[in-house]
DNA sequence: CTAGGGTTAG
C-alpha cells in the first residue's frame, strides 16, 4: 500500500509539536525523535525545515551528536536555526572545534545574534574566556547588536579571565549602555565578574553594589554573590548574606560555603556548616555530599567519611561525583583496596574517576601501578598529564617526567603552571640546570612566574642544581608563599652548608606567625645536623611536641640521631634509641651507622649494621658502609667477610654512575668507563691533573678501595676511575673557563674522591659542585662547604 | 536555536 504523503507529513508535524513539549523528558523525546526520523526514512518525504531542526535539537540534547550531524548533513541548505542548533549542540557536548567549524562555514550574511550568542556561550562553557571576548568584539565589529543573552554569555567568559578592574568597568558600562545592565541574568554575571577579578578581590564591593541594585533578584543572584564571598575567603560576609536569604534558596548557598571552606582546608568549619544545615531542616543534596567527603578526605577522617558513605548509599540520591570523591577519600586514608574496589564497581567511569585513581597511586608512591593506569586511560586531559608528570618527578623518574611534558606540548595541551612545576621538579631530579633555567624563562614569559606551585618547584630545582643564590632569589621575589616555599628554602640552605642561615630563615618563618609542619621540622633538623648546630637542633626537636603538637616520626628521630652522632655524642644517640616510643626502624639504624662511619666508631657501627641486616637484608648500602668502615682501618679479612655475606645473600651493589649536563645534553659515566667517544683524552687529562695535585700535597687514600689489592699502585688506578672523577675531568675539558662545574652521582661519594675534588678545585681554580645520593659538596679553592669530612 | 550560581580528580 502506498502511504499518503500528506497524512505522514501531518503525523510528523504532530510529532514535532510533541517534541517541543517533551524536550525536558529526554528519554521520551528521544524516542519520539527516533520515530519521526524513522518515518522520514521509511516514507522518503522531505519534511519541513523546522521539523528537521527540532530533530537535530533533540538528538543534540540527548547526546546523540552523530545522528544530529547526519540529519544536518542531509539538509541541502541548512538555515540559520539548524546551524545554531548544531553549534550549540557541539558546544554543550564540549566539542568546541566542531561547533566552530559549523559556525565559521556559515556566511556572515546568514548569521544572526542568536548564533553568535550560542558560539560565545560555547567558548565560555569550555573555559575559553578569551575566545568568547574576541568573538563578542568581532560580532560588534560586523554590525550585530548584542542582546541580553550576549552580555550574560560574554560576561561568563570574562569572569574566567578577568584580571584587571578596568576590564570589569568597561564591560559593565557597555552592558548599561545597551540597556542590558539591569537584566537579572546580566547583573548576575556582572556580580560574578567583579568578584572573580584576579588582581583585586577588593572589587567585592562593586560586586555587592551590582547585587544590591538588581531590581528583581532571583536565586542565582543570591548564590552568585555568595560564591563571590566564598571564593575570596570572606566567609563572614557569606554567613551574613546567608542570614538574609529566603529559606528555600539556602541550599545552594550552603553548598557554596561548604565547598569554599573545604577548598581553604577549613574542614572543621565545613562540617560545622553541614551541622547547621541539618539543624535548620535543609536537606543535603547530591551537590553537598562530594564536598563533605572531600572534607573528610583532606582531614583524614576515615570513620566519618565511611558514615557519610553509608548514609548516602541508603538515600540513593547521589551522582557519580560522589563515587569519584569516595575513590579519593579511601586512597587518601591509605585504603587502596577499597579505593580500587569502588573504582571497579562504578557504573559510569569518567575522566575524573580515572584521574582520581591515577592520583591515588601516584601520591602513595605506587608509581608502577600509576604508569599502568596511565597507559590504560583512553582519554586524558591536562590534569591527567599534570598528575603523571609530577608523580614521575616526585618518584625520581626525571627523564620520563620531562619526556611526558614535551609529549604534552606536542599533543596540543597548553601547559599550565602546575604542569611546569612538574617539569621543573623533573629537572631537579636530574640536576638539569640549563633545562630548568629555560623553563624558568618560559614561566616569566607566559606570566606564570607568580605561581606558587611553579615558584616552589623552582626553589627546589635551583637548590638541587647547587645554585643556592637563585633559589634564594626566587623565594624572595615570590608574591605569595606557603609552608612548602619556606620548607624548600630552608632545605636549600641546609643542603648547601648554610646551616646558620637556614635556622635564621626558620626563625623568620616563626616570627611571621607561620606554623611549621612536620616537613619543616625535618628540614630544620637536617640543616642543624649538616651545620653541626647540636644544641639548636635538640631545642627544635623538643619544640615539636611541646609547642607545635607534632609527634616526631621515625624520620625526625633519625635526623636527631644523625645530629648527635655527627658531633660524636654517641651516648646521647644511644639513649635516644633506647627511649624511642616505637620499635627502631631501619631509618634509625641507618642514621646511627653512617654517624659511626664518620667517626670510625666500630663497635656501635657493627651493632647498627647487624640490626639493619635483620631488617633490610637486601639493602646494599649497609654492606657498603660496613665494609668501608673495615677498609678504613685496614681490616681486610672483615671486608672480605662482608663482601662474601653480600654475595651469599645475592645482594647486588648498585652500579655507581655520575653525570654532567652540557647545554641540556647529559653525559653519563660509569666506574672504569671507557665507552665515551672521548674517553682516551679524558683519562689522559685526569692523569695530568693527578700529577699536579700530588705536587700540592694530594695523597690518594687507598683505604677506600674495597678489595685488598696487593700493590698500592694498582689501587690508585682503581681510585682514579671512580665515575665522578671521569665526569669532572670531562666537564673541565669541555666547559668554558670560569663556569661552575656541576657533577651528579647516584651513590655516595667516597672520601678519596672528596679529597680529590678539594685539591682539584684549587689546581684548576674552578667552583665544583658535587651532588651525591645524600648531600651536596661545594668545592672552592681547596675547601668544601661541608667541611673536610664527607 | 542563545544567558547567569552550588558537586568530583592536583
Can you describe what's shown?
There is one protein chain. Helices cover about 70% and strands about 5% of the residues. By secondary structure, the protein is mostly helical. Among the domains are: about 100 residues, Serine Threonine Protein Phosphatase 5, Tetratricopeptide repeat (Alpha Horseshoe), CATH 1.25.40; about 100 residues, Alpha Horseshoe (Serine Threonine Protein Phosphatase 5, Tetratricopeptide repeat); about 130 residues, no CATH class. Helix 3 packs parallel to helix 5, helix 7 runs parallel beside helix 9 and helix 28 runs antiparallel to helix 29. The chain is elongated and about 105 Å long. About 0% of the residues have low confidence. The structure holds one DNA strand of 10 nucleotides. Belongs to the PPR family. PCMP-H subfamily.
What descriptive keywords fit this protein?
mainly alpha, 790 residues, PPR_At4g14850-like_plant, elongated, RNA binding, repeat, Serine Threonine Protein Phosphatase 5, Tetratricopeptide repeat, DNA-binding, single chain
Topology:
Layout: H1 5-22, H2 26-43, H3 49-61, H4 65-74, H5 80-92, H6 96-105, H7 113-125, H8 129-141, H9 148-161, H10 165-178, H11 184-195, H12 204-212, H13 219-231, H14 235-243, H15 250-263, H16 267-279, H17 288-299, H18 302-315, H19 320-332, H20 336-345, H21 351-363, H22 367-376, H23 382-394, H24 398-410, H25 417-430, H26 433-446, H27 452-464, H28 468-477, H29 483-495, H30 499-511, H31 518-531, H32 534-548, H33 554-566, H34 570-578, H35 586-599, H36 602-615, H37 620-632, H38 636-648, E1 657-662, E2 665-670, H39 679-695, H40 712-720, H41 723-734, E3 741-745, H42 751-763, E4 768-771, E5 776-780, E6 783-784
Parallel strand pairs: 3-4
Antiparallel strand pairs: 1-2, 1-3, 4-5, 5-6
Helix pairs in contact: 1-2, 1-3, 2-3, 3-4, 3-5, 4-5, 5-6, 5-7, 6-7, 7-8, 7-9, 8-9, 9-11, 10-11, 11-12, 11-13, 12-13, 13-14, 13-15, 14-15, 15-16, 15-17, 16-17, 17-18, 17-19, 19-20, 19-21, 20-21, 21-22, 21-23, 22-23, 23-24, 23-25, 24-25, 25-26, 25-27, 26-27, 27-28, 27-29, 28-29, ...
The protein binds one DNA strand of 10 nucleotides through helix 3, helix 5, helix 7, helix 9 and helix 11.
Amino acid at each position: 500500500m502506498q502511504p499518503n504523503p500528506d497524512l505522514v507529513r501531518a503525523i510528523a508535524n504532530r510529532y514535532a509539536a510533541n517534541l517541543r513539549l517533551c524536550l525536558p523528558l529526554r528519554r521520551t523525546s528521544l524516542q519520539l525523535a527516533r520515530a519521526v526520523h524513522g518515518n522520514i526514512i521509511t516514507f522518503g518525504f522531505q519534511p519541513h525545515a523546522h521539523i528537521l531542526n527540532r530533530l537535530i535539537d533533540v538528538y543534540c540534547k540527548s547526546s546523540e551528536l552523530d545522528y544530529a550531524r547526519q540529519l544536518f548533513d542531509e539538509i541541502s541548505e541548512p538555515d540559520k536555526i539548524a546551524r545554531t542548533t548544531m553549534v550549540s549542540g557541539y558546544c554543550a557536548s564540549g566539542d568546541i572545534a566542531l561547533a566552530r567549524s559549523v559556525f565559521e562555514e556559515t556566511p556572515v550574511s546568514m548569521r544572526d545574534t542568536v548564533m553568535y550568542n550560542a558560539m560565545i556561550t560555547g567558548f565560555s562553557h569550555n573555559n575559553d574566556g578569551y575566545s568568547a571576548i574576541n568573538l563578542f568584539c568581532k560580532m560588534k565589529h560586523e554590525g550585530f547588536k548584542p542582546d541580553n543573552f550576549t552580555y550574560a554569555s560574554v560576561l561568563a567568559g570574562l569572569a574566567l579571565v578577568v584580571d584587571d578592574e578596568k576590564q570589569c568597568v568597561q564591560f559593565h558600562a557597555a552592558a548599561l549602555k545597551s540597556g542590558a545592565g539591569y537584566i537579572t541574568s546580566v547583573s548576575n554575571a556582572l556580580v560574578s565578574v567583579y568578584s572573580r577579578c584576579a588582581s583585586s578581590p577588593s572589587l567585592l564591593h562593586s560586586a555587592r553594589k551590582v547585587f544590591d541594585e538588581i531590581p528583581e533578584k532571583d536565586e542565582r543572584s543570591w548564590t552568585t554573590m555568595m560564591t563571590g564571598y566564598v571564593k575570596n575567603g570572606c566567609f563572614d560576609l557569606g554567613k551574613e548574606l546567608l542570614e538574609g536569604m529566603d529559606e528555600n534558596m539556602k541550599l545552594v548557598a550552603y553548598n557554596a560555603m561548604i565547598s569554599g571552606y573545604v577548598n581553604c582546608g577549613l574542614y572543621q568549619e565545613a562540617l560545622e556548616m553541614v551541622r547547621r544545615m541539618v539543624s535548620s531542616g535543609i536537606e543535603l543534596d547530591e551537590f553537598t555530599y562530594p564536598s563533605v567527603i572531600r572534607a573528610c578526605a583532606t582531614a583524614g577522617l576515615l570513620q566519618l567519611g565511611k558514615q557519610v558513605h553509608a548514609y548516602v548509599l541508603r538515600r540513593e540520591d547521589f551522582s557519580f561525583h560522589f563515587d569519584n570523591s569516595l575513590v579519593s577519600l579511601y586512597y587518601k586514608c591509605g585504603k587502596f583496596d577499597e579505593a580500587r574496589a569502588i573504582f571497579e564497581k562504578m557504573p559510569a567511569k569518567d575522566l575524573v574517576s580515572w584521574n582520581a585513581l591515577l592520583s591515588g597511586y601516584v601520591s602513595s608512591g605506587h608509581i608502577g601501578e600509576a604508569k599502568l593506569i596511565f597507559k590504560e586511560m583512553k582519554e586524558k586531559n591536562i590534569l591527567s598529564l599534570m598528575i603523571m608528570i609530577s608523580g614521575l618527578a616526585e618518584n625520581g623518574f626525571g627523564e620520563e617526567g620531562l619526556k611526558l611534558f614535551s609529549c604534552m606540548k606536542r599533543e596540543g595541551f597548553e601547559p599550565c603552571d602546575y604542569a611546569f612545576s612538574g617539569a621543573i621538579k623533573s629537572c631537579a631530579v636530574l640536576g638539569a640546570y640549563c633545562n630548568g633555567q629555560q623553563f624558568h624563562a618560559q614561566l616569566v614569559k607566559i606570566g606564570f612566574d607568580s605561581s606558587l606551585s611553579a615558584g616552589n618547584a623552582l626553589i627546589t630545582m635551583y637548590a638541587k642544581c647547587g645554585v643556592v643564590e637563585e633559589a634564594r632569589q626566587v623565594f624572595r621575589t615570590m608574591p605569595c608563599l606557603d609552608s612548602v616555599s619556606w620548607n624548600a628554602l630552608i632545605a636549600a640552605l641546609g643542603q648547601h652548608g648554610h646551616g646558620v642561615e637556614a635556622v635564621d630563615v626558620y626563625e623568620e618563618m616563626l616570627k611571621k606567625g607561620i606554623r611549621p609542619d612536620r616537613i619543616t621540622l625535618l628540614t630544620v633538623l637536617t640543616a642543624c645536623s649538616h651545620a653541626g648546630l647540636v644544641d639548636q637542633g635538640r631545642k627544635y626537636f623538643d619544640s615539636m611536641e611541646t609547642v607545635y603538637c607534632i609527634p616526631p616520626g621515625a624520620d625526625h628521630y633519625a635526623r636527631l640521631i644523625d645530629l648527635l652522632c655527627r658531633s660524636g655524642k654517641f651516648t646521647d644517640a644511644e639513649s635516644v634509641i633506647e627511649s624511642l616510643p616505637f620499635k627502631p626502624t631501619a631509618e634509625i639504624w641507618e642514621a646511627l651507622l653512617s654517624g659511626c662511619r664518620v667517626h670510625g666508631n666500630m663497635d656501635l657501627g657493627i651493632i647498627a649494621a647487624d640490626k639493619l641486616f635483620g631488617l633490610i637484608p637486601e639493602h646494599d648500602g649497609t654492606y657498603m658502609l660496613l665494609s668501608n668502615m673495615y677498609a678504613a682501618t685496614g681490616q681486610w679479612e672483615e671486608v672480605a667477610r662482608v663482601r662474601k655475606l653480600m654475595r651469599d645473600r645475592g645482594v647486588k651493589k648498585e652500579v655507581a654512575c655520575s653525570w654532567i649536563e652540557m647545554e641540556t645534553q647529559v653525559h653519563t659515566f660509569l666506574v672504569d668507563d671507557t665507552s665515551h667517544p672521548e674517553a682516551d683524552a679524558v683519562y689522559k687529562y685526569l692523569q695530568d691533573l693527578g700529577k699536579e695535585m700530588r705536587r700540592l700535597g694530594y695523597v690518594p687514600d687507598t683505604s677506600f678501595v674495597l678489595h685488598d689489592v696487593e700493590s698500592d699502585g694498582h689501587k690508585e688506578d682503581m681510585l682514579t676511575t671512580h665515575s665522578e672523577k671521569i665526569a669532572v675531568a670531562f666537564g673541565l675539558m669541555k666547559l668554558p673557563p670560569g663556569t661552575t662545574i656541576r657533577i651528579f652521582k647516584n651513590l655516595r661519594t667516597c672520601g678519596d674522591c672528596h679529597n680529590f675534588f678539594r685539591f682539584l678545585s684549587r689546581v684548576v681554580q674552578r667552583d665544583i659542585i658535587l651532588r651525591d645520593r645524600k648531600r651536596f659538596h661545594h668545592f672552592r679553592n681547596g675547601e668544601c662547604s661541608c667541611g673536610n669530612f664527607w
